[in-house]
Amino acid sequence: MTDITSQTEAALAAIAAADSLDTLEAQRLETLGKKGWVSLALKTLGGMTPEERTAAAPAIQSARAAIAEALEAKKAALESAELEAQLARETIDLTLPAAATPKGSVHPVSQVMDELAEIFADLGFAVATGPEIEDDWHNFTALNMDETHPARAMHDTFYFPDKTSDSKDVLLRTHTSPVQIRSMLAQGAPIRIIAPGRVYRSDSDATHTPMFHQVEGLVIDKDIHLGHLKWTLETFFKAFFEREDIVLRLRPSYFPFTEPSVEVDVGYSNEGGRRVVGGHGDAPGHAWMEIGGSGMVNARVLEFAGVDPAEYQGFAFGLGIDRIAMLKYGMNDLRAFFDGDPRWLAHYGFSPFDQPTLSAGVGARA
Ligand code: DAH
């Protein structure tokens, strides 16, 4: 009996004196471990007569309980002391100046969108936006593509499982053209807008990504004709590529939302393995490259959008922003645009202070 009492007192003293988790663990093994003296003492109870056991058990049980409690309390104390020490060691003084300057940059797509807005603002265009989650009426039907129109299948559309409350299909817009409809419905005619933004198609290779960027253009007024369209695009590309020798070719084509429809080609040449925009596409060493679709807005589209085709007409165009960014700034893989690789961004990104302005140059690099 006295033996257990003194052994317990000695163990409790050793536990109290433990100055690390390791010495505490050694104490645990010596007492409550498989071969610790408390465990061995508990085992002797099995071989005793009931009377002996009744006499011996309480002292052993209370020794076990006291030691277990002391071990646990000491463990918690040592752990929190260690955490405190670690926190003190790893303190950061947030009032000190940064060791490295922040490395953010403006993505070329954002830069080109700013350049577009700047150039078209000078031509009297406002910037319009629309939702990326669209319904099939705005994305297709109102653009003269009814449910059975084959062009719907060509768009590789991402559909959502649910429909809108009036049971229209919900989808990720496949082009920026629905912003034409939304803008006309909201403000009527006359109208002069561009609508840059993200569009989505289920498509992926070196020149296609499931998300990409387009800019839509729309001009509705009285007496608008194809000549206005050609002048507008030519003036835009001259300002955008910062050269006067831009030559456009309008090639007859088909889009459901325009009549007549034209595809827009630009003359270019190859310089050092890179396409450089400029010159007549039929000139020696030159060729034509398609850069967008356009045409006179189909009268049916005007009707869907609540504009009277007897009074108003106009043109629309759609350009791939990523494509013209690649042409202007010399990237060759579209997928790298959306990888978020900091080395690519550091190389092709722009300084936030390098705002495109017509006076300082829309392509200026700081
Ligand atoms: N929405 C077409 C597409 O994504 C591009 C386009 C063609 C837009 C002709 C237009 C247009 O506004 O007139 O393929």
Please tell me the CATH architecture of the largest domain by its name.
2-Layer Sandwich
The biggest beta sheet is recorded as:
8 strands, mixed
Average predicted confidence as pLDDT? 92
Strand content: 15-25%
The top level CATH class name of the largest domain: Alpha Beta
CATH homology group of the largest domain? Bira Bifunctional Protein, Domain 2
Portion of residues within helices: 40-55%
What this model shows, in words?
By secondary structure, this protein is of the alpha+beta class. The protein has two domains: 2-89; 108-346, BirA Bifunctional Protein, domain 2. Helix content is 40%, strand content 22%. The protein contains twelve helices and eleven strands. The strands form two sheets. Strands 1, 5, 6, 7, 8, 9, 10 and 11 form an eight-stranded mixed β-sheet that branches. Strands 2-4-3 form a three-stranded antiparallel β-sheet. Helix 1 packs parallel to helix 4 and helix 5 (108-122) packs across helix 11. The model has no long low-confidence stretch (mean pLDDT 92). The structure holds 3,4-dihydroxyphenylalanine (DAH). 3,4-dihydroxyphenylalanine (DAH) is lined by residues 175, 177, 216, 255, 258, 293-295, 316-318.
